[in-house]
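Let's practice the habit of predicting before peeking. Look at the sequence and jot down your guess about where helices and strands might fall. Then scroll down.
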Amino acid sequence: MRRWRRRGAQALFFLLIAAILFYALFPFYWAVVSSLRSGSRLFSISLLPLHPAWSNYLAVFQAEPFFRNILNSLFVATLVVLISLGFALGAAYALGRLRFAGRRMLLMTILGVSMFPQIAVLSGMFFIVRTLGLYNTPWALVLSYLIFTLPFTTWVLTAFMRELPRELEEAAIVDGARPLTLVLRVLLPLLAPAMVTTGVLAFIASWNEFLFALTFTLTPDERTVPVAIALISGASAYELPWGRIMAASVIVTLPLIALVLAFQNRIVSGLTAGAVKG
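Done guessing? Here is the structure:
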């Protein structure tokens, strides 16, 4: 009886895993299939594209400056991640290792800022961007994206910084290490999994951001990929080129998949670090 119960529990577990994988992967699979169809075939229910229409992928780059849009997204997301991690590392050291008045209140303020919806700060950011002369430039997106990436990276790295053993820090101080050397030579290697995890998540958030990118960019050459995809149009307002839209969606998803696969070991280590204390 126990053996049958164990097998039944295993079967239910594998069914649950299969359902989760189907739920997570089928939309992307259907996007790939739809990107290889054109005309009336887009509305068929066949699970395989019998006559692949690779022209959709060529049309994405021919109709719009889509390659330039990809480079814009790559530049903005990479710069946002580097700036966020740089500032967050110093802030995490101060908030996680030093004792000063108002530290808890400052942490709560950082967490509260990260909870604000983008629409709540849109008008204020637009005024700042226009005042600084950054409108319709990638720098406007870099400045605005830091609003949601910097609090997130600071909060996560502070939590990881608190878990590091203080004995290493004390030993480095005894050996004469300065604060900058202590952070870069002692603590930074130990924070590598957390840095990679937060960096990847911040990159994905910046890559997929739409509202700020739509508001602060005007010309096609300065747009990022989410806005470029949203503004793909057909011959009329009632005839959207769904095959081309799906092809563009697949193209911009592939770099994120490659990024996660390249750093999957670091991401898993960063997500599980500190879960079990010795």
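How did you do? The radius of gyration is 23 Å.
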